[in-house]
Amino acid sequence: MSRYIARRLLFLLLTLLLTSMIIFVVTQWLPGDVARVILGREASEPALAALRAELGLDQPLPLQYVSWLGRFLTGDWGTSYSTGEPVRALVLERAGNSMMLAGLTLLIAVPLSLLLGVVAGLKADKPLDATISIGSLAVVGLPEFVTGLILIEVFAFRLHLFPANSSIRPGTGFFEALPQLVLPALTATFVLLAYVTRLTRAGVVEEMRQGYVRTATLKGLPRRTVVGRHVLRNALLPTITVLAISFGWLIGGLIVIENVFNYPGLGRLMTFAIDRRDLPLMQAITLITVLAFALANLGADLLYAGLNPRIRLE
Amino acid sequence: MSDEPHRALEVEGLTVTYRRGQGSLDAVRNVSLRIAEGQAYGLVGESGSGKSTLALAIMQYLPENGLISGGAIRLAGQELATLPGEQMRQVWREQIKLVPQDPGSSLNPSLRIGDQLDEALSDGGETRGGVRERSLEQLRQVHIADPERVAASYPHQLSGGMQQRVLIAMALAGQPSLLILDEPTTNLDVTTEAAILDLVCELVQSHQTAMLYVSHNLAVVAAVCDRIAVLYAGELVEDLTPEQLRSQPLHPYTVGLLDSLPRVGQRAGVDPLLPIAGNMPRLDEVPAGCVFAPRCPIALQLCHELRPDLEATQQGSLVRCHRWREIQAGAVDLRAARPANVTAPDESLSGKIALETKDLVKHFPVRRSLREALRRTPPRSVHAVDDVSLQVGQRRTLGLVGESGSGKTTTARCIVGLVERTGGEVSLFDIALAPGLDGRDAAVLHRLQMVFQNPEEALNPHRTVGDVLQRSLERMRGLGKTEARQQAGRLLEAVRLPPSYLDHTPGQLSGGEKQRVAIARAFASNPDVLILDESVSALDVSVQASILNLLTDLQSEQGSAYLFISHDLAAVSYLADDIAVMYLGQVVEIGPTEQVLQPPFHPYTEALLSAVPRIDAAAGIERILLSGDLPSAVDPPGGCRFHTRCPRLLGEICRTQAPPWQQAAPGHRYRCHIAPNELAAMQSPAFRDHITTVSP
Amino acid sequence: MAGNTTGGGSQPASLATHERRALPAVFTRWWHALRELYARPSSALGTTLVLVFLAMALFGPLIAPYSATEQISGAARQAPSVQHLFGTDHLGRDVFSRVVLGARDILALAGLGTLFAVVIGTLIGLFSAYRGGLTDEVTFRFFDSLLALPALLLALLVLGVVGPSRNSVLVVLVIVYVPIVARVVRSVVLSTKQKGYVEAARLQGESTASIVRRDIFPSVTPALTVEAGLRFSYAIFLVASLGFLGVGVQPPNPDWGLMVSQARPYVSLTPWALYFPAAAIALLVIGVNLAADGLKRVMLPGREV
């Protein structure tokens, strides 16, 4: 087990290192002359040279990467090109908002999708399963802005239950923001629901075919014991990994959803940064997101290992 | 008939149907059988005979597309086929139990063994401690020495044999009136199988439980059961006692099965097997007359037209054949009608050594953990093959035998270069071979070919048989397209397949036919040496026999030398001139076949020999059971590697000193601390079923 | 090579017959697959939807009554009518024409992106996995890190830096999907490589290229077809989302995602300008999903998910 954890941690560090390199290359090297990006097309050559020296852009690329990563790790995330504010405070505040939204989404989506998946899996190829499966299949790739707009039309414009605009003020707490969180969270739920339901169903169907299910049934156990004690234990284990992967989907989905609902989270900030080619802001947002995704994966791996005797007792 | 009170199980005219798309197929047709209380009843058949379907139908656990479309199943007088679900659950709980084929997947991987056992035993009215106490007792009953440890384990921590013991313990919970064992030893090693069979026999005796034992192996069933039913293509063709099976089986299929089964010591050149021609019919192509008629050596016109009834003989056996009376009277000779056609290789042509390994070593590195790497712990490795020296003479066959984990497959893969050896030398007619395929030039590659174990993966499913053979001929003999096509036809002929098969895809071929094509492909280059790695092990007995005979013929025609690798000592002894026995990466005994099968043998060889299931239950064979599981090859035991399980353990010397090679006879050596004369004195000579007349 | 011993004349002839035999076989396979797709109601619906949109993309200019950018004077903000089936937007452009003509953009982008990603990913997956060793290890470590970035985030990052355009979107699709396709191919290769017929070919001295082409690639195709269907569906999703976020196809092109975001400020005045393109996206995605699911049932029977 400790060996497994050590290996996982090592992988995590390696992945983060590689990913940070990719982010660095994309944002510092790909745009060409960053100094020109900042100062604009009409900037004079001496001014450009001065800025390059100031930003360390005249140094070799690997050296630039090391000092960039070093600054980031020590908490100096740079200054936004467009607002002139320090990036860190801005990003952390928005990250908090995104977490609230993600949290509410998971709270709704996880139990619901597991339930639907298990029900569909147990009723495999029966009408109920067909309904759930086709339904989830149909919505699995619907862009969030489509689902979001439908929800707004129905729940905001027609029923007037929740607001269509979720632009909360900075520092709003979870419960205070709740009415504004509901519609975006529901939209995000659709993204996860379809995906997790389908994989959970597959897991249940797969486990129902295993020999131990026959052994348990032929012991004369009632079906609810066979399912509850034997099947779910094994079928729900892989959904931990599924949930971690779907967390990545959620992050992508939130970018769009926050734009649909005008919600001040990281995704909204990202499109703002892109509009203004604000490189430090883009870097910080991407890095913090990747870190969150990687930690979610690590958490899932550890949970999986802890619950799976084949790894736990290695 | 059914008035007799002591019937544990009665099956009357049972027909089981599978729905397939629009149509339906009958997997079991009109089968009747009766098992008395305390009787051990064997059900024998090859794959596709419907034996497992029959067992599951009796259990009322058919797959969703299967249904009982006719007949009755009565358990102690109670009709099961019409029983409502809740009552069937009670029957499963109390009366009828199954020991499945695959112990590994039949236990829940994430529940402890004890909990899984408790579940089978608990009836709700007892304390947890009480139930657990009974569970432990149940484990003791199947001779598990440390039940507490096993109960606290998860299935993956136990060996296959141990898992099967647990499942047997589970099945015996609550004194069932019928125990069904569905191929319970099929995926286990021979020595483990022997131990499980002993256990089953003992428990049946002590519990007086009726038992239905389903197996493809006649010898196993004959050893365990009081009565045997032979199933063919969904029909019961003969129902007889083990004595009748040995003395006078009446159905041509039963006779064919017996003649296809190699016995330890039976040699291809002396006493060839008489295989059954052809394949079992598919379920949608069942013949109109006798189901066996298309393959029967003595079929008459009548047999093709009219399905025979199951008739009772004076001796109390049942047989479904139009000509059983003639067979009983000896008026037809079933064996004469099936010529063996085996040409033994001409020994005088051999002489040189075709293939040689010297001190072959293969260690697979084990990945070190981070902590071990930091502490500079020396890297560990799996000792898959250690110092293996073999010689295969020109035109001769060396048999390599051992159980799983003995390193025989790794040895073969090192020789052909699919795995790069760690040390030692491999040479082909004195040409030293590079460790990997990249270092060997094409000419050498073509002289050394291999046929693999799994027939299903032997051929590219996307190419026709003709394409496969043609490609090999173009590649290895440099033939042009047209010529290669013609030669491909000839190769097919050589493996006794019709030329029309050139246009078949592997999907249209049976397992045996695929393996024939794989053999033909290997022979495309007329190799000097052919390595056969468990190449017949996955096949049914009757098919296996014909391939063994084919290999013998091809050897005399082409003059190739064989390295024949198998876990099946009988098959090895049938083909091989010499035998090498491997245990945990080492050769422990090597010598001419006749001598290896006679004392003195290495204690491991002795255990292997005693474990082989025999149809004749040869008198005086004392089964030598090995204790414990195969040790890990990462840290093989010091001294003699076999000392942890050796029934002839001397003492300290075996644990500390590597045993020397002992010379039992010229060319016959084994690795043990016990000298040949002492060893011979301890060992029983009566191991061989066949007394061969040829002396070396 | 091997065929040099035979007369030169027979070679091209036999090759030609081989080709002639192979071509109809491919058609029969597709015809067969199409028929199986129509055997299930859900995949029949999906296939029909895909075919309708495909026709729209191919014959769009013939169907659309107006051009995509024409601002019809005096006809702004008209509700759906016979004249303007889907109404007109706030600038007086015919929404029906824009939706029909937009099909080409999204299908071409998503289709080409999928095609390139599948081809490149397959080649990398095939050879890297068959060869194995350090290169394979490094390649897939790198791919894993790419996958640690959520797809949309990676796409936004790249587009934010290089600037939005059709070509950038195409490049982004390839970058995002190559690792995924390569991983799928790799897993099939790793299991196929162990099989007897591949090892037998190696023992007969076959070259890597020949083994990969003749023995390994055919086993990859079913999983690859299914994966391509899935990728196509996500590519549509991604193109539409990027368009909505304003970093994909740029105005005044009739991109569906873009149309939705442009119509949002006027939703109370011209709801049709928002809901018709949104519905087009929804129907296309649902169609591709249902068809891809059907394709999977045909190509990989017995496989869940």
How far from one another are the termini of chain A? 6 Å
Nearest-integer average pLDDT of chain C: 84
Indicate the radius of gyration of chain C in whole angstroms: 23 Å
CATH class membership of chain A: Mainly Alpha
**N- to C-terminal separation of chain C?**
45 Å
CATH architecture verdict of chain A: Orthogonal Bundle
- Can you summarize the main beta sheet of chain A? none
Could you say what the CATH topology of chain A is called? MetI-like fold
Number of helices in the DSSP assignment of chain C: 10
Can you characterise this structure?
The complex is a heterotrimer of chains A (314), B (696) and C (305). In chain A, 78% of the residues lie in helices and 0% in strands. Chain A has 14 helices and no strands. Chain A has helices spanning 2-29, 34-39, 45-55, 61-73, 87-122, 127-139, 144-158, 174-208, 211-218, 223-235, 237-261, 266-275, 279-307, 309-312. The mean pLDDT of chain A is 88. With 696 residues, chain B is α/β, with parallel strands linked by helices. In chain B, strands 6-7-8-3-9-10-12-11 form an eight-stranded mixed sheet, sandwiched between helices. In chain B, helix 5 crosses helix 7 (160-171), helix 7 (160-171) packs parallel to helix 8 (190-207) and helix 8 packs across helix 23 (603-611). Chain C has two domains: 1-37; 48-299, MetI-like (MetI-like fold, Orthogonal Bundle), CATH 1.10.3720.10. Chain C has 305 residues and is an all-alpha fold. The interface between A and B is medium-sized, with 28 and 30 residues.
